[in-house]
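thread from #wetlab-drylab

HS: before we spend reagent money on co-crystallization trials with oxa(dethia)-CoA, can we at least see a predicted complex? here's what I'd submit
DV: go for it
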Amino acid sequence: MTEIRGAGIIGIGSCSPPKVLTNDDLSKIVDTSDEWIVTRTGIKERHIVEEGVAASDLAVIASNNALKSAQISASQIDLIICATVTGDMPFPSVSCLVQDRIGAVNAAAFDLQAGCSGWVYSLTVGASFVKSGMYDKVLVIGVDILSAFTDWTDRSTCVLFGDAAGAVVLSAMNPDEGVLGMNLGSDGSGGKLLKLEAGGSLKPASLETVQNRLHYIKMEGREVYKFAVKILGEASVKALEASGLSTSDVDLFVPHQANVRIIDAARTRLNLPPEKVFINAHSYGNTSSASIPLALDEAYNQGKVKPGDIVVVVGFGAGLTWAASVIKWTMPAI
Ligand code: UT7
């Protein structure tokens, strides 16, 4: 399809809560060790919120940082899309809470749920609105507070997650710049591998759901691991093909930061050198919908991406879902 206008990132920001939980801290809560966690995941520490801090609190800070970086005011935003699986409450949406608190008085707002792939899904939806001419400026947020749904007695999951938010501002630009090709997918048959069973219409909160610990994340880690290694490479190659590019064109690969071993395995499959892959999982753990915009913001601020660079963002997660997008970077070098 020939596009008459493109959509690209003109501002980026993130927010990571100050409280740090190290592997040694976790070894005092459950039967684990720094050695096990580092060897199996590469994670050394994660940031988690204090009690009472919700998804919208981090999302507002990340959004204001992105607006500042874009040098535009909140009233110029036409649409807010927020990727999350851990909103402040089932409704209203995080995007509406953010819309009010940042003063985006002219913006439509909705949340998008696609597990840890949610932010890349949201990026492609936002870019489509801009490319179609429907909207000029779209704020795309990814936020999750997984610590609120982590079973702190389950060592197989509690060592993995952290809390954060990241956001970008999309704006119209030339069709050969910004968000290029993408690949989105789902396999609902794998939904049982990663789930939070209660609190929805199937099993509303009850004494029984609480007693059975059904309000916490449950995961079959091994199965998710196998899926992740396969899909990160496949989705990236398809998104590159859709952009008329190949892996040799990639300047920076920014995957979902779930596990350094998963990222390394995908990197090997894609035949990318380590210096072209951005990893910050060791400092933040898996921050779900926030992981990719948080990594992208950190990579940008470390001067790892400059105008004209081809950046691949790719995620996988609950659903099961996956999403990859190719971005021709346009923001000025730091
Ligand atoms: O964004 C969402 C996507 N989620 C993911 O990306 C997670 C994907 N999966 C993974 O990253 C890995 O499967 C894990 C890191 C979760 C687990 O690593 P693994 O190498 O697959 O370990 P495992 O689950 O097969 O467990 C191996 C052993 C078991 O003990 P036995 O049965 O061999 O005696 C576990 O009980 O390690 C044990 N174990 C632990 N030991 C110390 C599990 N968790 C821990 C722990 N500390 N925290």
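DV: The first strand starts at residue 6 and ends at 15.
HS: ok that's useful, forwarding to the group
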